[in-house]
């Protein structure tokens, strides 16, 4: 019985992998962002840009906002 249950589980797992490969063309593209980087994370981008314009990029406040924007971009699939 255990052998037949394992045989049933294997096609489901491989079927899922095939569906992912067909729809996303491989694992590298499966992690690709769905948006352009300029359109991702508009709220953190706006706050970051305003801070840099007012205080300069080396301001402690801005460094926190810059890092928050990077975290947001990474969550969207970008490698920054």
**Number of E-state strands:** 0
Mean pLDDT comes to 74
Tally of alpha and pi helices: 4
Main beta sheet: strand number and arrangement? Answer: none
What is the share of helical residues?
over 70%
Helix and strand content put the structural class at mainly alpha
pLDDT below 50 for ≥5 consecutive residues: which ranges? 2-29
Q: What is the terminal-to-terminal distance?
A: 50 Å
- How many structural domains in the coordinates? 2
Principal-axes geometry comes out as elongated
Measured by DSSP, the beta-strand proportion falls in under 5%
Rg calculated over all Cα atoms: 21 Å
Would you list the SSEs in sequence order as H and E?
A: HHHH
Overview of the structural elements:
Helices cover 71% and strands 0% of the residues. The chain has 2 domains: 1-32; 33-80. Mean pLDDT is 74; it is low at 2-29. The protein is mostly helical and 80 residues long. α3 runs antiparallel to α4. The protein contains 4 helices and no strands. It is found in: Mitochondrion intermembrane space. It holds the Pfam family COX17.
């Amino acid at each position: 019985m255990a052998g037949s249950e394992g045989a049933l589980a294997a096609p489901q797992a491989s079927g899922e992998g095939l569906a992912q490969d067909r729809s996303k063309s491989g694992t590298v593209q499966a992690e690709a962002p769905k948006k352009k980087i300029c359109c991702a994370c508009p709220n953190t981008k706006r706050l970051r840009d305003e801070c840099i314009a007012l205080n300069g990029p080396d301001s402690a406040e801005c460094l926190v906002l810059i890092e928050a924007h990077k975290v947001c971009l990474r969550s969207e699939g970008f490698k920054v």
